[in-house]
Amino acid sequence: MHTIVTVTERVPETPSTVTLRFDYPVRAEPGQFVMIWFPGDDELPMSLSYTGGSSKGVTIKAMGATSQRVQSLPAGTRVGIRGPYGNRFDVTARRVLVVAGGSGAAVLAPAAEAAAASGSRITVALGATQAPELLFRRRFEEMGAQVEVATDDGSDGTKGFVTPLADRLLADGSFDAVWTCGPEVMMRKVALSAARSRVPTFCSVERHMKCALGMCDACALGPLHVCVDGPVFPSDRLLGLPEFGASHRDPSGRRVPFGGR
Amino acid sequence: MADLGTRIGGLALRNPFLLASGIWGESGESLAGAWDAGAGGVITKSIGSVPRLGYPNPTVETFDEWGLLNAMGLPNPGIDEYPKEIDVARARGATVIGSVFGGTPEEFATLARRIGETGVAAIELNLSCPHAEGYGTEVGSDPRDVEAIVRAVVREVHVPVIAKLTPNTPDPGALAVAAERAGAGAISAINTVRGLALDTTLRRPVLAHGLGGLSGPAIKPVGLACVWQIYERVRIPVIGVGGISTPEDALEYLMAGACAVEIGTAVTQQGIAVFGRLAEGLARRLDALGLASVTAAVGAAHASPR
After folding, report:
1. Same domain, A50 and A104
2. Tens digit of each residue's pLDDT (9 = 90 or more) over B17-41
3. Is B201 near chain A, with CB under 8 Å?
4. Which of A85, A113, A133 is where one domain is finished?
5. Can the peptide bond before residue A257 be classed as cis, meaning omega within 30 degrees of 0?
6. Is B226 a catalytic residue?
7. Which of B129, B162, B179, B255 is catalytic?
8. With contact defined as beta carbons under 8 Å apart, do B146 and B110 qualify?
9. From A2, A218, A223, residue closest to B61, measured CB to CB
């Protein structure tokens, strides 16, 4: 069933991302997602960017027409929620490298927060197209994480993708887990690097979703269903799948390569 | 241990539990996964002539454990794309039944011929989706339409043709009789029951499409009644569908006259392991009742089982 809740707060995070906060007093764990229904519009799967207590949140990146529309919804808007669904990050790792690309930080921030709160040491490789797009940088810093930055245009931190930065941090540090979320091609590179360094890696994977119940097959990834088997997967379950980092399915079920048709 | 093997006419199945159409059937790997989990056969998503995105979300609404309302809108990659998914499942050894939907007898016939070329073991005709304009129930509620469609398909293919019928009609038996007369090899009953979910705060239907189809435990008595009535009207095998989530549910359908059953919503509630659980539980229940096989239970609740 959908629970109708009211958006309590709309927080612009970066030029392309907005957080919507709402009261939804159901237990949720970092890594889980909800289906959020914008009445009269679409229902979208969204990882929770705030999981603790009764006030939850989702952080939406402007991608297609729907996300742009729902980004502009003001506080007071009513939305429908079902979930939370899916699994979570194991936040008991003691020394964690977080690799976030773009809006991937949305799901990684609450996981890092939970781990940091129980004494884990967190290092963050935070990547974005440009400095103003670095999502949750201050939030990571406030939880006591060491934050390293990469921007495509060099406007802050290392110039270029976040993957070389992650490689450097992997080489320097002794981590017992890597958590990553971002474009799938990026996650694949991170997972391969971490595998060479023998650090267990967990990827939060995104797919088109309709039911979120393990029924419709829209989110099929090899033998996996992202909605019920994930969305967080150990990389050794993903790296052997030809589709990982290569293709997903459109709403009709056709295979579509990442980065265009 | 009771023999779980069964037959849909000439098609032998290792057990009576089929993956229902619309569940997991978009990808070949998912079909193979259901087979590996112990399904007796797997039925593809209903495939049409061209790719179809389906309806916008929300496409589902859940009601605790008793039901699931959906209006997916027949999303599918189309008959040109889909055969490679069937190839994947067949290469893994799965018994695959191809499901198709069309708007006319000619379209059904073409689709059936094309999906038949992939080597599927049988073809199920979706005459019963309750929420797609121009398809499903709209072409499957009149016995004359059912007869014309089945007749057109049977001419084109060499495998059993299964007519999946709607419960959203006063006389499902008449539809089954029409399908049998046209040469169908079996009947599946039922598809989902037309339903609606409303939100009173928002004063609007929940599903983007409005009307949907109800599945899950709530519809078991409806499906059982249809199977019961159809069994008394036709000689061809009947496949039972609707709200089966326990071995006992399955046995009720068998005794009502089904020779096999389809499992759908239970996959969302119990995961794909439901297939292993159902097979094991049914064997145990048959043993306890002194029934040597699935076949011995088929129609057993009727005054004169055949």
Report:
1. no
2. 999 999 999 999 999 999 999 999 9
3. yes
4. A85
5. no
6. no
7. B129
8. no
9. A2
